Amino acid sequence: MPRDNKKRGTRWNTITHEGMRNIIMYEYLPSLLGERIPAYSGYKADLHPGISHIFQSAAFRFGHTMIPPGIYRRDEQCNYRMTKAGQPAIRLCTTWWDSNEILANSTVDELLMGMASQVAEREDNLLGTDIRNNLFGPMEFTRRDLGALNIMRGRDNGLPDYNTARAYFGLPTRKTWNEINPELFKRNPELLRSLMEIYSNNLDNIDIYLGGMLESTQGPGELFTAVIKDQFLRLRDADRFWFENEQSGIFTKSEIEDIKKVTLWDIIANTTSIDPDSIQRNVFVWAKGDPCPQPYQLNSSMLEPCVPLQRYDYFEGSELVYIYACVFLGFIPILCAGAGYGLVKLQNRKRRRLKILQEAIQKRNNSEGKIVDKMIVREWLHANHRRLVKVKFGPEPALYIIDRKGETLRTFNFQDVNSVSIEESQEADNGPNKGLILLRIPRDYDLVLELDSVASRRKFIAKLETFLTSHKKHFALAQTNRDLMLAKAETKERRQRKLEQFFREAYALTFGLRPGERRRRSEDNDSGEVVTVMRTSLSKSEFASALGMKADAVFVKKMFNIVDKDGDGRISFQEFLDTVLLFSRGKTEDKLRIIFDMCDKDSNGVIDKEELSEMLRSLVEIARTTSLSDDHVTELIDGMFQGAGLERKDYLTYNDFKLMMKEYKGDFVAIGLDCKGAKQNFLDMSTNVARMTSFHIEQLPPEDSKNWAHKQWDALSTFLEENRQNIYYLFIFYVITIVLFVERFIYYSFMAEHTDLRHIMGVGIAITRGSAAALSFNYSLLLLTMCRNTLTKLKEFSIQQYIPLDSHIQFHKIVACTAGFFSVLHSVGHIVNFYHVSTQPLAHLRCLTAEVTFPSDARPTISFWLFKTVTGLTGILLFVVMTIIFVFAHPTIRQKAYKFFWKTHSLYILLYALCLIHGLARLTGSPRFWLFFIGPAILFAIDKVVSLRTKYMALDIIETELLPSDVIKIKFYRPPNLKYLSGQWVRLACSVFRSNEFHSFTLTSAPHENFLSCHIKAQGPWTWKLRNYFDPCNYNPAEHPKIRIEGPFGGGNQDWYKFEVAVMVGGGIGVTPYASMLNDLVFGTSTNRYSGVACKKVYFLWICPSHKHFEWFIDVLRDVERKDVTNVLEIHIFITQFFHKFDLRTTMLYICENHFHRVSKTSIFTGLKAINHFGRPDMTSFLKFVQKKHSYVSKIGVFSCGPRPLTKSVMSACDDVNKGRRLPYFIHHFENFG
């Protein structure tokens, strides 16, 4: 462009710009304000030209009151154009953000001529409906109220109140509400009352916008007129380049006069094709006589209704897909939980069926092929409870009541009876009541059965008669009234209530309480209950049940005969009460007499050695241990006679018996009966002192008395000190996780605005990216916790003192739960994010990411984002896989259906593969998961490769042995160059089953032995299959089964040799690690293998229900005691499934054990040097004993292995002792089994 033309263009632009300013200042403002604008007096340099807050936030908004509900369009001949819908004007509320469509269907000339003729809304305090609740906000789908926005804008900008603003502009302040607009409030008094109520009748609280609008009548009120006038005058007078400023030299005086002559009519007439005579000269005002008057003043009722906003809802059409997707994701955990529950039930059902099948085969063999009849009925238990059962007739002379699971609920035995009483209820054949049958035999509860009809009852009676006749039993059939039958029926539930009352009354009377003191019923009912109790008597089976024993036990028979003084075969309430009173409050002499009478089988006043031998065998039977040999019994009896100075006698008189028991006289003071079957303990609990004399626990120095706060501080300090490593690493873990979350959250909230993600997705993107960073770290860390070979190797170095490697499984669970939380948060966040993305127009999405291209202008729906993008599809798959892994890792599923737990956990490979793919689409940013994953993945892969050295090596089985309590011992070849420590474990698989299904078991062989062995208890499906396969009845060595192993891996007990003094506690099958550790200990000390190593003394506490279940371990202990030439090992055995420590049976066992140990230096029950204790150990007292005895060391290792309650009690004992803040300090290591 030539230089002169460019200058000329700039000049005309300036003239046009100044012409517009002239129109606004000297044409529009006078029309709006209704007064002339003062003449220009020159540039004022000290005047501020800025836009004031009160103008832009309040007065500037006055024009909103003039907005009409529609816009007229006309031509030069005054023809007003109708809309396509036949409406007289374009409705404002339907055209928000749609100017392109209006301009496409209308000319600018038509719009200008229509607006020139159209009269605006009155300049008052009212706003049109189109801007009230129909204002369409940007990129949002909510209706807005322009008046409310104006009020809120003033408050956001901190504008002063209405009166303060008036005072500032030199206007008088309002004293009363009526002064604001008297005419308005006179016409609308309700408006005045509403205002006074809203503003608490305080004029100084009125918002500027509201007060200014209320002043309006035929234009802005005093306040808004002053504000608008002030603002425009300052803009004019403070502008050095204002066109009237001759000093600026921009325009000459004649040019200024020409500019001042320009009106908006001139511009319209010269820039459009509109005939100048078609519009009035003053286009801002239409006066009578001007061209083309409007047809009528528009109001909203004349126009089409506002179009619903869903026209602009970009989410339209995606609702069902979105709802179904959310429901699907929500139901995945429920479906997985249901599948897990079903699998557990299925496994239980398989085990029940196998058990029922085995029992059926056994019974079929015993019954020699007899046919067993069955019938489905309902058993009547009491008025409000009936249960559907199956009655099986025989093959033995008994009825078996079986539930739907195939388990026997009750056996109605006819073996020892000759006659059966049968009663049937009296019902009409077509009556509403169902047929009832009552069966009654001596010394058993009544059996009441309900059948569907009288015909079914006749069928049942016929089968029962045939069955009884086949077993040569007599029966008496009688009919009775239905209600009378049910009232007299002595069912198990009714009998149980009577027995509970029986034992309650006996307990109350025994300890000096009046029976009526604890009752809450009326005296009449009390007397009735007392009579019922007095008439109740116990059978032998009920007495045995109360003692917690079987009815055929020798001790029960002897005790029953003593208590049943009248010999009628039942124990009356008075007989039972006399006995428990004697044991609880009687003299020692009387208690000894009862024991003597129990031993005196023939009641001849003396006890011969045969009778004493029978009594000893009954006590061994109570202990559930192996039976005594004749030599042991003879040795024990001879020792007892010799100890009492009666070696020349073959029998004992009562005086001889007292002499023999003289040294135990103190033990009989508190002797009593522990009726644990009746849930009543008839013992004086005030004398319940721990019987642990073998520990020789002496009185420790008294601890300093401390107040409550000091004790709590000590407890907290001890807890923090004992768990300091776990707490420290958990703290570090959560700090890193939270920092990663917060860093990404802040980045996407405040530092990534340029990416438009925050604008489109809102705060959801910050939450999802933060949770993505946290779960990436968590998922990667999970791999490290499962690097078993690495963890085992680390235990050989001193680093294990600073890292709690034994807690890697617990840490794995904590990390997994944390990852699960952030995974759910991430998933929910992205569901919300995809919703926001689906509501955006295509123009916004093209700015979202360069990685996704759209081949056409078709807007992508929610189904596209969820199912057609890599991020959405892999996200759904990840959620499904994660949920399956988490649900099937539940302890119940892991225990009952381990195979499915292991298979679902193997999906971790798919999980990590999907995590790597998930971010490749780069929808919200570059993928970062690989940064966390690559290091742990390499280490985990190397760890897995190390496991392959033994995993696929098939090892021959040397021998198998089936042991009591469903334990099997498997001995197999040791791989060459395999090194391990005692207390370590392997993952074991058998080739006859799934060769890739491995299970964890502790090695029971010692490191110096040239073979490997495991003792495996049958608990789950796989171990039961293993046990049944190697059962001598089923095992076929010709099949040559092989063993495969992974490991060995470090266990919680392998560091026992690092402590100078160690305490080992084993419970249940948890004794398996100690089979290896104790063998290793005695081998090392006897061969000086551990010379220079810390271990000098080991205390081993074996806690078991009974010896009978772990005879194999007794053999191990026997071999260990034989090899222990240095006495480094001290063993204590506790039998837990027993009675109170001062119960009669426990006391007698205790006496026999002491006698035998004194004579032969071994236990009467096990043959070991180890002493047997009856009951659970007092771990706190024992640890205090060890603490005092070995006060020269600084720390003692405590190792426990067994059920969770056992390890928890040992941990609590360590905590209690460590609270005393005395040395040595106890450090607890543990493993849980079961």
Automatic annotation (TrEMBL):
Domain FAD-binding FR-type: residue ranges: 950-1055
TM region(s), chain numbering: 321-344, 727-747, 759-784, 814-835, 865-888, 900-921, 927-946
Topology within the bilayer: Multi-pass membrane protein
Gene Ontology cellular-component terms listed: apical plasma membrane; NADPH oxidase complex
EC id: 1.6.3.1
Keyword annotations of the record: Calcium, FAD, Flavoprotein, Glycoprotein, Heme, Hydrogen peroxide, Iron, Membrane, Metal-binding, NADP, Oxidoreductase, Peroxidase, Repeat, Transmembrane, Transmembrane helix
Molecular function, one GO term: superoxide-generating NAD(P)H oxidase activity
PROSITE patterns named in the record: EF_HAND_1, EF_HAND_2, FAD_FR, PEROXIDASE_3
Annotated localization: Apical cell membrane
Enzymatic reactions: NADH + O2 + H(+) = H2O2 + NAD(+); NADPH + O2 + H(+) = H2O2 + NADP(+)
GO process annotations (BP): cuticle development; defense response to bacterium; hydrogen peroxide catabolic process; molting cycle; post-embryonic animal morphogenesis; response to oxidative stress; superoxide anion generation
SUPFAM superfamilies, alphabetized: EF-hand, Ferredoxin reductase-like, C-terminal NADP-linked domain, Heme-dependent peroxidases, Riboflavin synthase domain-like
Record-annotated EF-hand domain positions: 551-586, 587-622
SMART domains, alphabetized: EFh (SM00054)
Residues binding heme b: H64
The keyword Repressor belongs to this UniProt entry's keyword annotation: no
InterPro entries: EF-hand-dom_pair, EF_Hand_1_Ca_BS, EF_hand_dom, FAD-bd_8, FAD-bd_FR_type, Fe3_Rdtase_TM_dom, Fe_red_NAD-bd_6, FNR_nucleotide-bd
Family: In the N-terminal section; belongs to the peroxidase family.
PANTHER family in the record: NAD(P)H OXIDASE (H2O2-FORMING), NADPH OXIDASE
Name used for this protein in its record: NAD(P)H oxidase (H2O2-forming)
